[in-house]
Amino acid sequence: MSGALLAACGEMSVITTYKSYSPAGGLPPIGFNHQFGLNPVTSRDAFELERWFFSKDVFWEVYFWTSPQKIGFVPLGDTSAVVATRHAVTSVDLTIASEDPHTLSGLLVYPGNPGPETYAEQLLQVIRALGYDKFSSARVHIYFSELYQYAILNWSRSAGYSFDVLLKESPVAGAAPLPKPTAPPPIGSHPTTKTSR
After folding, report:
1. H/E element, 110
2. What are the backbone angles phi and psi of residue 166, rounded to the nearest 5°?
3. Rounded Cα gap, residues 115 and 124, in angstroms
4. What distance in Å separates the CA atoms of residue 86 and residue 82, rounded to the nearest whole number?
5. Predicted TM-score (pTM) of this structure
6. What Rg do the C-alpha atoms of the chain give, in angstroms?
7. CA 84, CA 71: separation in Å to the nearest integer?
8. What is the extent of the structural domain holding 130?
């Protein structure tokens, strides 16, 4: 039986696999990287937001989920379709995660009362600034590493904000707060950005 298996292996060939999306590496065969977002539009926006954080020495991994689920499957080169997609989103889930001590301690000492809630609310303003300005409900999930959910911010037009801390962590004495989150510049406006094909 083992001989038959080895003979069958001789007929197999290795298929080249695609690496995750990077500015230099191109796109995976499905046209976008689902590790960043639910569809091509949210995936690109999450990736650009992650790179924008990185340029500010803030190291969040970003994932962006929206509803309705199907509307983001539009050609990324069609600016009007991308803008219309963002306007049509009714619900937003933004997940950020980090293992970087500077980022996590900076969140814990973020100014405001309470600081991390203020930061999460500002992240929703960043999403609105990207053009997702019609949604009626949203959540921001904050993870310390990819395993431990630190907190969740819920927002809706009817109920407003609620913030639940799920993981008790103490601020690090003397840590510098994170810079205020801001929206990245429009895609294609800075030289290191590669637009999707």
Report:
1. none
2. -105, -15
3. 15
4. 6
5. 0.78
6. 20
7. 9
8. 31-165
